[in-house]
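User: Run a structure prediction on this.
Assistant: Running it now.
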Amino acid sequence: MARTRFAPDRGLTNRMVTTMFLLGLLYVVFVGVMIVLLGKAWPLIVIIVGAVFVAQFWFSDRIAAYSMGAREVTPEQAPELHGAVDRLCALADMPKPKVAIADTDVPNAFATGRSQHKSMVCVTTGLLRRLEPDELEGVLAHEMSHVAHRDVAVMTIAGFLGVLAGLITRMALWGGLGRSRNNQNIALLLIPLISAVVYVLSYLLTRLLSRYRELAADRAGALLTGRPSALASALTKISGQMARVPTRDLRQAEPFNAFYFAPAVSGQSLSNLLSSHPSLEKRLDQLGRISAELGRP
């Protein structure tokens, strides 16, 4: 990881390595089982899986940006936003990411990119309308710490592995693959079951990592700017405003919650086990402790 002035987080690094190891092990076993069940069709499975993985890794930032409606803006189009990003880049000693705006009333922000030189930070028009300059800077520092810590790339790969089971299952079942009629019957029973187990385990692992990385980004962003109270204010304001956003807009945003600064939830809050973000209380409590530490002589 390229050095920046964002506070390093060994806990986050260890969790990312552990999560990727466990997911990789899980999918090696999964693909191995598919090869045994699908017989002569295994080369096709390996080729397709490899091709999809490469495409996901190299084009994930563009796919995510397009899916979330991000539009890159120039300094002339958004001078205040670019000014805030420029200040944070100088403070963090890191390359400037692309800057984008998504035209939606959902107040949020996200970062994409597999490296610091291939990254983008995006805020929504709803966020720009609601936050003060210091609050916006706190949110941007949070998002840029994701890029500095490279957890955006890890979450992208983890997300790919999460849908791999479904992809292989569809190919196997639609293609009617197998070495014999009996083998096909066994595959039809086992493939959906194995895929479901793999998907659930992947989902829980990525959610666990997602919650920790949000706390790590809050901590790194607050320490970089030296204003944890501004980030806390932004969090409180955004969470309070979510209830006023049209349900249709929230539902469109929900699939991308793992990438957002704050979760867009259209119904009742999810349980801690399934949530992509830690609770607001937990995030504010951490920022309060950081504020107290920074205030000590």
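Strands lie at 70-72, 98-102, 109-113, 119-124.
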